[in-house]
Each structure stands twice: as C-alpha cells, then as structure tokens.
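Here is one chain, start to finish.
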Amino acid sequence: MIFLVDGSNAVRGKSYDPRFPEMEQARTEAWLLRLDSLAAGQRRVEVEVFFDGPRRGVGVAISALSVRFPVDGDADEAILGSARHVLAMGKGVTVVTGDGELAEEARSEGARVIGFSELENRLRRSRG
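Its structure:
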C-alpha cells in the first residue's frame, strides 16, 4: 500500500500564518514524529510525505517515512506525478490531502483519496 501525503497541507491547517515559520516547523516535527511512529514496523506500507518549497531540514529523525521536497517546490504536482507513475506500474495508490483541488485531480488519475485522520486510523488498525 502506497500513501502519498500532502505534508504542507497537513501541518499548515486553518491557522497557518507565514509570518511564523517556527510554528510551522514545530507542527511539522510533531506531526512527522506521530506519523513515523504509526508507520514504523509496518510491512507492505510505504508513506511518502511531500512538502512545498525548497529542501530543508524537518528537525526530527524519521525512519518509516520518505520526505520529499520537489525540485520546483510544488508538492501537489509532485504528488500527482508520483501517483501517475505508481498507477502506470499497475499498483494502487492513495493520496492523503485536505486540498479539494488536489483530491479531485488525484481521483481523475485513478488514485484513492483520504484525509489525514483516516491515514492515521488506517495505520493504527494495520499495526495490530
């Protein structure tokens, strides 16, 4: 099972304010740690988290996730490109986002789409 996660959308949420990058960094670290612990030790589960903007440190050590910063800085396009690639190989893929436009485009490509809480619930259930 492959999950392509819109990380920027997950951590920014409703109260995102670009004037406070330290808030976004703290949210990123806390969320990645939680997601990493849920994904740890799972077989047949790949979780790739995509962030907008240039490559930067995420501030925490993670082992069960892949973190991506697209060359052009556009996470949505990178998620769609990865989804197309996986689907072309005949595999299923699930896009995880709260962005309605990305969700619609992903569905039109043939991907499943779920929200962030559903991803966490699925990872919890598959652990045990």
